[in-house]
Amino acid sequence: MDVRSNRREAGGSSVVTANRLLDGRIVWLAGDGAWSGRIDAAHVFSNDGIEAVIDATARRQQADGVVGVYGVQVRDDSTTPVPVTVRERIRAFGPTVHPEFATLTEVPPDVR
Amino acid sequence: MSAEILAAPSSGIAPVGHYAYDQVDRAFLHDRVEQFRDQVARRLSGTLSEDEFKPLRLMNGLYLQLHAYMLRVAIPYGILDSRQMRELANIARTYDRDYGHFTTRQNIQFNWIRLEDTPDILARLATVDMHAIQTSGNCIRNVTCDQFAGAAADELLDPRVHAEILRQWSTLHPEFSFLPRKFKIAISGSPNDRVAARFHDIGLVAKPGRHGTVFDVFVGGGMGRTPIVGVHLRDNLPEEDLLAYLEAMIRVYNEYGRRDNIYKARIKILVQALGAEGYREKVDAEFAAMDRARYRLPPETVAAIRARFGTPALDAPSDAAERLAGARRADAAFDRWVRTNTHSHRAAGYISAVISLKPDGGIPGDATSAQLDAIADLAERFSFGEIRISHMQNVVLGHVRQDELHALWQELGRAGLASANIGLIGDIIACPGLDYCSLANARSIPIAQKLSARFANPDLQERIGDLQIKISGCINACGHHHAGHIGILGVDKKGEEFFQLTLGGSAASDAAIGQILGPALPEDSTVDAIAHLVDAYLVHRTDGERFLDTYRRLGAALFKDAVYALA
């Protein structure tokens, strides 16, 4: 995983993401351990403990049918998880040049 | 090169402009598809890990990008026929989101592919003699070619037969399948460089010699994080030594190229490290030691390959040029399109037409399945079913009768494909950028869209004249920003997008690397900055001077002031 996308700050919060093996679509780890195509279903972890979550999740990625597990830091000013970096916001909400491909019907304001 | 491939004559009518496959080629493709189908099944079952599977999928053009798998399909030397284009449209409709993206390597990419569909997609491609081999990995990639090859009035020699020979020579070449890094070859037959020959690992310019075809050879050019204009290695390489000499060149690279550092692994780094003369000496020594008879490219082999190419019957009526002139006088919009979007043909009464894939505010290089079908229909009606893709991400119909050009233009207008901006500020190269690419730092496409919308006025575009803007979303430079008259490079600053401007680049015969103008700009200032650069140029240019000429005459200072003095 590219270091740029996997960096986190102490005291922050993150969600866990991957790509689905079958179709490559982006998925987010939900609270029940399932994977969702919507970031608003993602469980938000404290950065203090997220490395252990990522390690455990990566170990079961073949069984889960996902590849490339890593953590994404999110802003702490939104109820819907909004990634800190523009790269991860594009992953979460879809390509900016095709609004019709947006992953959420209602995209939180100011997420681009 | 496979002797079987060369020995088998074509049984059907050869497609105009490219090599006709036979049963040997088709059997190979079928086996390759079934091999990959098995590899995908083993990946899905867990028998293959992602680390084991990744190099296998890349050998079949399949990347895992930001949102999905991306399949890059090869278009050898940028030429395909109408039935192939229709199959690409089918794939876009059936397996993707109804569009494809033409690349700066004359290939096409589909951005929303499912892994489980990929073997079926490759099987459908194989039905029209297409594949995704050599579009990824550290091998000799798809050989690119002049988009006006075999048609241009300024051409000395049609290079496509030799491009096909290089394709066959390099396909599954056992010695060159695991090079230190990817390896890109471009070939042209015109003294006017339209293939960026000096920015390729090897650039070849074919021309007639005293005793047959010869080649001028450039080596070690490239973009990426270390942009270098290629070295002129030698002149007048005889055709019969083409494969032997390239074999020697790449053998030296394979032996001495660095494998310890991905950023120093391209041949350009080796050529710089050895020096041009040092590299030339090693190549000459290898060349001298080779069994030249084994690698000789005899005229009969070239003739056999040439025989597998269809040739167009060029028989325009004698008044074709006169009728075109009349249509231009009667229709100002058509006249403008002819000025910008056509290229002189070698045959009387014919002309090459460039179909811009850069509509105002659009995504450079994208085409919907309906547009792909429309292009196929128009190619059959107007240009012998032959279609060319340019490294500028446009489409060319090579052989259009001049008296039929107005009808073609009208049909293009109905398909939304009649933008009159080739070579102008709206004809922007842009990589997919951060909207799709997992390597990108910043988005390229939105900047291109905003620029083409800002400069949409056709009068303004013509007044500005020849100005090439090229945008890359990261330092890998797939958008060729180093060679842009104005280059734009996306950079990442703490997770946000910024854009660095370079001026003075050129991919043509006067190849040059653009120079950084100043600090990177935030996204919302970048389009205004380009507008300030254009304004400064319009104020200071002399008659007939291109943007590049003005920059070279006056230097960077006034342009730097135009962008940064107001900040």
TrEMBL record, chain A:
<dbReference type="InterPro" id="IPR021270">
    <property type="entry name" value="DUF2849"/>
</dbReference>
<dbReference type="Pfam" id="PF11011">
    <property type="entry name" value="DUF2849"/>
</dbReference>
<protein>
    <submittedName>
        <fullName>DUF2849 domain-containing protein</fullName>
    </submittedName>
</protein>
Automatic annotation (TrEMBL), chain B:
<keyword id="KW-0408">Iron</keyword>
<protein>
    <submittedName>
        <fullName>Nitrite/sulfite reductase</fullName>
    </submittedName>
</protein>
<dbReference type="GO" id="GO:0051539">
    <property type="term" value="F:4 iron, 4 sulfur cluster binding"/>
</dbReference>
<dbReference type="GO" id="GO:0046872">
    <property type="term" value="F:metal ion binding"/>
</dbReference>
<dbReference type="GO" id="GO:0016491">
    <property type="term" value="F:oxidoreductase activity"/>
</dbReference>
<dbReference type="Pfam" id="PF03460">
    <property type="entry name" value="NIR_SIR_ferr"/>
</dbReference>
<keyword id="KW-0479">Metal-binding</keyword>
<dbReference type="InterPro" id="IPR036136">
    <property type="entry name" value="Nit/Sulf_reduc_fer-like_dom_sf"/>
</dbReference>
<keyword id="KW-0560">Oxidoreductase</keyword>
<dbReference type="InterPro" id="IPR006067">
    <property type="entry name" value="NO2/SO3_Rdtase_4Fe4S_dom"/>
</dbReference>
<dbReference type="InterPro" id="IPR005117">
    <property type="entry name" value="NiRdtase/SiRdtase_haem-b_fer"/>
</dbReference>
<feature type="domain" description="Nitrite/Sulfite reductase ferredoxin-like">
    <location>
        <begin position="69"/>
        <end position="126"/>
    </location>
</feature>
<dbReference type="GO" id="GO:0020037">
    <property type="term" value="F:heme binding"/>
</dbReference>
<dbReference type="InterPro" id="IPR045854">
    <property type="entry name" value="NO2/SO3_Rdtase_4Fe4S_sf"/>
</dbReference>
<keyword id="KW-0411">Iron-sulfur</keyword>
<feature type="domain" description="Nitrite/Sulfite reductase ferredoxin-like">
    <location>
        <begin position="363"/>
        <end position="413"/>
    </location>
</feature>
<keyword id="KW-0349">Heme</keyword>
<dbReference type="Pfam" id="PF01077">
    <property type="entry name" value="NIR_SIR"/>
</dbReference>
<keyword id="KW-0004">4Fe-4S</keyword>
<feature type="domain" description="Nitrite/sulphite reductase 4Fe-4S">
    <location>
        <begin position="136"/>
        <end position="287"/>
    </location>
</feature>
<dbReference type="InterPro" id="IPR051329">
    <property type="entry name" value="NIR_SIR_4Fe-4S"/>
</dbReference>
<feature type="domain" description="Nitrite/sulphite reductase 4Fe-4S">
    <location>
        <begin position="467"/>
        <end position="563"/>
    </location>
</feature>
